[in-house]
Design goal:
By secondary structure, the protein is of the alpha+beta class. The chain is built from 3 helices and 6 strands, in the order αββββαββα.
Length: about 110
């Protein structure tokens, strides 16, 4: 299922304090960029996620973030991504959401 304009608008509103956030549609979702760097994605009903690997992923998990996984309709295999959901406390708090996004950006590639 493709990401809707409403989902993109909600993500932009939530991330407004971060500054200019652009998106590119990809595989039914949208990849999010700030200053030309990928920091997250919107994945349909799974919502807004940020990139987090290694110790950053562990920090996110400690705050209630879930790792993103999806099942391929062709193979039935589950794939785990390097993205994690925003912690619940950040889902309706722009400052908290942007703090998580900045953390993902600072962690780099």
């Amino acid at each position: 299922m493709a990401v809707s304009r409403a989902e993109l608008g909600a993500a932009r509103d939530l991330l407004a304090p971060l500054g200019a956030v652009i998106h590119r549609h990809m595989m039914g979702g949208a990849i999010l960029y700030s200053d030309g760097r990928i920091f997250g994605a919107i994945m349909g009903p799974q919502g807004l996620h940020v990139r987090a690997r290694g110790s950053l992923a562990e920090r996110f998990a400690a705050d209630g973030s879930m790792q993103v996984a999806w099942t391929s309709p062709k193979t039935g295999q589950t794939q785990v991504t390097g993205c994690r959901s925003l912690p619940d406390a950040a889902l309706d708090d722009p400052e908290a959401a942007c703090e998580w996004a900045r953390t993902a950006l600072d962690a780099g590639d």
